């Protein structure tokens, strides 16, 4: 009897020890949709967005996951919108209904974001666009729409601010301006904002020239601008537009206005010089040509320096560009929201993103335009972003404005 009691006692002790030492089950992953143009017209930007998002999520998961959710890992579910509005809305619906994602990072551009947000609003899922910038999207009372981009009107106003600085500080004689822009909501709004600000200062806008978003030749636009001989030209557009414009400028010998300023990606993308080639780039991007940007990898902020170091390890040889920074910024905002809220329902995540505030000196602030830190207005627009302006010199790009982020002086 005594032996049986002893054996039973030892068995209970063994079972208790086994139960105590067993690890608790891993929490379920947090499914996050990533809806980007991984093919099509904007594929290069979409791929850069993806790399930035992956850098942040990999760092978070390898660092133990989301602490407030017992170490839950983020699981990315990718969807390719193919740079197409209809595809974007279809893929957003699939991410919500089939994949059951809690949040969506993307889309990249304004047209795709406009197509997606009515779908996500009906589904109650939030999204952070990496470049969607049309002001009109933020006037509909959408609850779950955010962007890390400056808005279209802020782009337009920033061009005027920079031209005003050139005139006041460097005595640039700018009395007449022409504006070129893509005929979509982003381009129209940016052009209208720039025109309004210029006219308010007494600057004569001698011509505004629109082109279709799928344009394949900008020679006619360049010829019309050349005939007007303005003191300055503002050219709004995407990378593909910038390539077409600069080639046409050189071919038509139309690089002569006192100032030619454009952006954002069309004049400041880090691959712009190499894609144009030395012959075209030296003529088109030299002199008094400047690019509006929301990011530059030479800026010495903790977030930019972290992004550059991380990219060298994860993607050797890859260019750390604005697309990568925007993807990383969107991902860091979501990570911050998850950590601070400890909740994963779509409604809770939308509320948590609204409450995010990242200091400007945080490694999680990867876009240096947020000189006041990352935070959102009630309608989902970023608060107080500041445009950067860059200048190219023999393949190298420097920030010349604003002063607190400048890495070189304005060449004049």
Task: Give a concise summary.
The strands form three sheets. The chain has a seven-stranded mixed sheet with strand order 7-6-8-9-10-13-14, with helices on both faces. It has a five-stranded parallel sheet with strand order 2-1-3-4-5, with helices on both faces. It is 44% helix and 17% strand.
Please provide a written account of the structure.
The chain is α/β, with parallel strands linked by helices. The chain has 2 domains: 197 residues, Response regulator (Rossmann fold, 3-Layer(aba) Sandwich), CATH 3.40.50; 159 residues, Rossmann fold. It has 14 helices and 14 strands. The strands form 3 sheets. It has a 7-stranded mixed beta sheet with strand order 7-6-8-9-10-13-14, with helices on both faces. It has a 5-stranded parallel beta sheet with strand order 2-1-3-4-5, with helices on both faces. The longest helix is centred in the first third of the chain and has 20 residues. The mean pLDDT is 92.
């Amino acid at each position: 009897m005594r032996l049986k009691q002893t054996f039973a006692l030892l068995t209970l002790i063994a079972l208790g020890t086994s139960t105590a030492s067993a690890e608790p089950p891993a929490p379920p992953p947090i499914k996050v949709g990533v809806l980007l143009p991984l093919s099509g017209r904007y594929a290069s930007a979409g791929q850069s967005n993806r790399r930035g998002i992956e850098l942040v999520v990999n760092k978070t998961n390898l660092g133990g996951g989301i602490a407030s959710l017992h170490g839950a890992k983020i699981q990315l579910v990718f969807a390719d919108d193919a740079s197409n509005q209809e595809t974007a809305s279809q893929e957003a619906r699939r991410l919500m209904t089939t994949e059951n994602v809690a949040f969506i990072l993307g889309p990249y551009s304004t047209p795709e974001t406009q197509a997606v947000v009515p779908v996500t609003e009906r589904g109650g899922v939030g999204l952070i666009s990496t470049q969607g910038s049309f002001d009109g999207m933020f006037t509909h009372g959408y609850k779950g729409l955010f962007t890390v981009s400056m808005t279209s009107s802020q782009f337009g106003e920033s061009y005027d601010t920079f031209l005003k600085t050139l005139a006041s500080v460097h005595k640039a004689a700018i009395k007449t301006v022409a504006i070129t822009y893509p005929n979509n909501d982003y381009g129209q709004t940016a052009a209208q904002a720039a025109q309004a600000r210029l006219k308010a200062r007494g600057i004569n806008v001698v011509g505004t020239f629109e082109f279709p978003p799928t344009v394949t030749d900008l020679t006619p636009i360049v010829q019309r601008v050349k005939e007007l001989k303005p003191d300055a030209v503002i050219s709004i557009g995407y990378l593909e537009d910038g390539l077409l414009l600069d080639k046409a400028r050189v071919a038509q010998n139309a690089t002569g206005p006192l100032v030619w300023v454009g952006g954002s990606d069309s004049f400041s993308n880090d691959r712009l010089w190499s894609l144009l080639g030395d012959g075209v780039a030296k003529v088109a991007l030299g002199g008094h040509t400047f690019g509006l940007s929301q990011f530059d990898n030479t800026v010495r902020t903790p977030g930019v320096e972290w992004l550059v170091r991380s990219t060298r390890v994860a993607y050797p040889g890859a260019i750390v560009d604005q697309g990568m920074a925007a993807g990383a910024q969107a991902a860091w905002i979501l990570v911050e929201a998850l950590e601070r809220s400890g909740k994963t329902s779509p409604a809770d995540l939308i509320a948590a993103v609204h409450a995010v505030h990242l200091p400007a000196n945080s490694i999680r602030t990867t876009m240096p335009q947020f000189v006041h830190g990352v935070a959102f207005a009630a309608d989902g627009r970023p608060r107080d972003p500041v445009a950067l302006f860059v200048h190219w010199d023999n393949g190298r790009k420097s920030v010349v404005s604003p002063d607190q982020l400048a890495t070189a002086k304005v060449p004049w």
